[in-house]
Write a structure and sequence with these properties.
Blueprint: H1 6-13, H2 16-27, E1 30-32, E2 44-46, H3 48-67, E3 72-75, H4 84-89, H5 91-94, E4 96-101, E5 108-110, H6 111-121, H7 133-142, E6 159-162, E7 166-168, E8 178-180, H8 186-191, H9 193-199, E9 206-215, E10 230-240, H10 247-265, E11 273-277, E12 289-297, E13 300-311, H11 313-322, E14 328-329, E15 336-337, E16 340-347, H12 348-359, E17 360-363, E18 366-369, E19 380-384, H13 390-404, E20 409-411, H14 417-427, E21 431-435, H15 437-441, E22 451-456, E23 462-466, H16 470-479
Parallel strand pairs: 3-9, 19-20, 19-21
Antiparallel strand pairs: 1-2, 4-5, 4-6, 7-8, 9-10, 10-16, 11-12, 12-13, 13-16, 14-15, 17-18, 21-22, 22-23
This protein binds zinc ion.
């Protein structure tokens, strides 16, 4: 049986997005940003279970794409790079959004979102990415698109707004001290390219992977953690010699690897995904091909993971701006050239939103997150059946302490077992372990002595497992 599409699930379960937002806050996945001060738009705090889920997704990515591949190495570059980096990359001039402001209520919004939402509401599709301001102005005026906040039709002309956050190094806010918080992690890879090839034994084709925060001054509503001021990126630059490697083959290999990661490692249904190729206007002028792997979010198919063949544009730009030779010399032939690059770039926060939406399951009164056990914030929860029976608590505590050495484990001794199951289901804990009187007394025929009840999140079935076999049991179920 295939799971329903999230957009269908939305109808079925009524407002899936709202349910995820509410569950996130209730159980400690994601909290609204700076809430005690009235909140800060497009910012969020990742709570005690959210940080575990996010980290597990990152670890899964790092393990799959950096550690388990012989053609990949890792990097952790700075958030604040030399400001010339962003001139070279084109972000100072190019990471701009076309914005409009409502003259009546002063709401500022991205012109492309305003237009797309207008057509989406009418069940029509309209892609305006890459269109010049004058064209956006014309579309807004021709269609009399109103302000989504106050309903007025009174817009300023579309104008450009840079998304890079500016700050200053040192105490004097002069032009010379101006720096940017990085708008993407990828540029750090190009900046360190020479040091990587000089310090390691990597040979083309090879890739560099990086995980880390990036920052964009987004001022439109971000759909929960889909679009936020700061976000965690997982980017790869895969370098190759275009004369000896077939870029199409490498590109298709990455497509396959990305899709496999989402469906197999993250457990997302394949038919909740689609590929969308960028048109000529949308694609950067230097890119030969760009596609987005999109997920069917409750607010429509949206970009999850971009894949772009960027040619030798970035390295050439950094050579031009730095004056440093960033070419590669083939150790076998002595051929010297600037490598080409393919870039798979994804936001971890989007992956997390997708994983939660896809895992959300309602079964009668029961709500659970059907997460892959590897991704679950807690691999197991340990309960003493009754909190006021020291014998039960003592055994349960020992199991908990022992399992903690190998797994993330939750402890709960409040209320009845049903409520504890309910709480763990919402967090996505795959196994709940209960120490009961059979553990001590052995049950009717004595065979349950030294065993505990292990309850499966997805089926709700229970089985007795010997305490000394628990570690092995969980390991087999989680990392099989
Ligand atoms: Zn308005």
């Amino acid at each position: 049986m295939t799971k329903p599409l999230p957009s269908e699930k939305k109808d079925m379960t009524n407002n899936l997005m709202e349910k995820i937002v509410s569950l996130s806050k209730r159980r400690g996945f994601v909290f609204p940003g700076s809430e005690i001060y009235g909140g800060l738009a497009n910012s969020y705090e990742y709570g005690p279970v959210g940080v575990e889920l996010k980290r597990n997704i990152q670890d899964e990515w790092w393990r799959t794409f950096v550690r388990e591949r012989s053609d990949m190495v890792g990097l952790d570059s700075s958030i604040i790079l030399h400001p010339k980096t962003w001139e070279a990359s084109g972000h100072v001039a190019g990471l701009v959004d076309a914005m409009v402001e409502c003259k009546k209520c002063h709401t500022r919004t991205r012109a492309d979102h305003l237009i797309e939402n207008h057509f989406e509401a009418k069940n029509e599709s309209m892609s305006v990415e890459g269109k010049p301001e004058t064209e956006l102005d014309a579309i807004i005026n021709e269609n009399k698109i109103k302000c989504p906040v106050c309903g007025a039709f009174d817009w300023t002309a579309v104008r450009k707004f840079n998304l890079l956050f500016e700050t200053h190094v040192g105490i004097v806010p002069e032009a010379q001290s101006k720096v940017y918080l990085r708008g993407e992690t990828a540029q750090g890879i190009f900046v360190s390219f020479k040091n990587i090839i000089d310090s390691t034994r990597v040979r083309l084709p090879f890739g560099v992977g990086q995980l880390g925060k990036s920052f964009r001054n987004e001022i439109t509503k971000g759909n929960f953690i889909f679009r936020t001021l700061e976000f965690e990126q997982a980017e790869i630059e895969y370098f190759f010699d275009p004369e000896t490697s077939d870029w199409k083959e490498l590109y298709d290999g990455w497509k396959e690897a990305m899709e496999k990661f989402v469906t197999e490692n993250l457990g997302v249904e394949k038919d909740h995904l689609r590929w969308r190729e960028h048109g000529d206007k949308e694609r950067s002028f230097y890119s030969k091909k760009t596609e987005d792997l999109e997920y069917n979010f409750p607010f429509g198919f949206k970009e999850l993971w971009g894949l772009a063949y960027r040619t030798d544009y970035d390295l050439n730009q950094h050579m031009k701006f730095s004056g440093v030779d960033l070419s590669y010399t083939d150790p076998a032939t002595g051929k010297k050239f600037v490598p080409h690059v393919i870039e798979p770039a994804v936001g971890v926060n989007r992956l997390m939103a997708m994983v939660m939406l896809d895992a959300y399951t309602e079964d009668g009164d029961r709500v659970y997150l059907k997460l892959k056990p590897r991704l679950a914030p807690y691999k197991a929860a340990v309960f003493p059946l009754l909190a006021n029976k020291p014998q039960l608590v003592e055994i349960a505590r020992k199991i908990y302490d022992d399992l903690l050495k190998d797994f993330t484990v939750a402890w709960d001794d409040r209320g009845n077992i049903g409520k504890r199951y309910y709480a763990q289901d919402e967090i996505g804990t795959p196994f709940c372990i209960t120490v009961d009187f059979d553990t001590i007394e052995g049950g009717e025929d004595g065979t349950h002595k030294g065993t505990v009840t292990v309850r499966d999140r997805d089926t709700g079935t229970q089985e007795r497992v010997a305490i000394e076999k628990l570690q092995e049991f969980l390991h087999g179920k989680i990392y099989r």
